Amino acid sequence: MNKTSLIKKILILVVILILPGFLYYLLTVKGENRYHPLPIFGPKPLAGTFHKVKGKEIPDTIFHTLGDFRLYDQHGRTVTPKTFDNKIFVAGFFYTHCPTLCNTINGYIDSLNRNYVKSELAYFVSLSVDPQRDSVKVLDGYSRQFEHPGPKWSFLTGDTATIYPLIRKGFLMNVVDEGKGDFIYPDKLVLVDSHKRIRGYYDISIKDVTRLNDEIKVLMLEEYRSKEKPLY
């Protein structure tokens, strides 16, 4: 082996060893100046307390969270906020006898879910706004049309006394039972972080769902930095 060939092999080895660490450095250190955190939606009252940053007192903020709830997935398992501890999730809203839009909503969730099947951090929720018709058994049958409906993708039901306040006061959107099987319900997807805070609203469109997919990754990076969890 001549000297030139040896030098080339050494250089290649150095690149292989250094490049992953350099990319990690760019993401975790330099990335702080390149990636902007996602906004936090909802009211933000001041807590009346302070914390110090570089000697300066900064008022503490109380961020809006979803609040408590108790629902049931398509397998009859109980789902509460604790189910999503240390996880982020995307929520959509539907009812099984909805003529068109609900299928589009769950179709987009299906495509997103496929991207994160192996992720331990990203989960998905489809919440029925018609729990009187959409029992656990009905949701189980409905979910079977999708390739990976669980355990990372939950179709949820419960009772209107829980679901409607959760949508209105938790997700900060509206839902109305107009009677005869018709509903006014949220036509957006919602991104929620591990603290149960709303981090984004997205229209049911290719453009916004693509943005949602990108912002799931941004939020995963945020969670990774704060908890040192794997990205995927």
From TrEMBL:
<keyword id="KW-1133">Transmembrane helix</keyword>
<dbReference type="InterPro" id="IPR036249">
    <property type="entry name" value="Thioredoxin-like_sf"/>
</dbReference>
<feature type="binding site">
    <location>
        <position position="102"/>
    </location>
    <ligand>
        <name>Cu cation</name>
    </ligand>
</feature>
<keyword id="KW-0186">Copper</keyword>
<protein>
    <submittedName>
        <fullName>SCO family protein</fullName>
    </submittedName>
</protein>
<feature type="disulfide bond" description="Redox-active">
    <location>
        <begin position="98"/>
        <end position="102"/>
    </location>
</feature>
<comment type="similarity">
    <text>Belongs to the SCO1/2 family.</text>
</comment>
<dbReference type="InterPro" id="IPR003782">
    <property type="entry name" value="SCO1/SenC"/>
</dbReference>
<dbReference type="GO" id="GO:0046872">
    <property type="term" value="F:metal ion binding"/>
</dbReference>
<keyword id="KW-1015">Disulfide bond</keyword>
<dbReference type="Pfam" id="PF02630">
    <property type="entry name" value="SCO1-SenC"/>
</dbReference>
<feature type="transmembrane region" description="Helical">
    <location>
        <begin position="6"/>
        <end position="27"/>
    </location>
</feature>
<keyword id="KW-0812">Transmembrane</keyword>
<feature type="binding site">
    <location>
        <position position="98"/>
    </location>
    <ligand>
        <name>Cu cation</name>
    </ligand>
</feature>
<keyword id="KW-0479">Metal-binding</keyword>
<keyword id="KW-0472">Membrane</keyword>
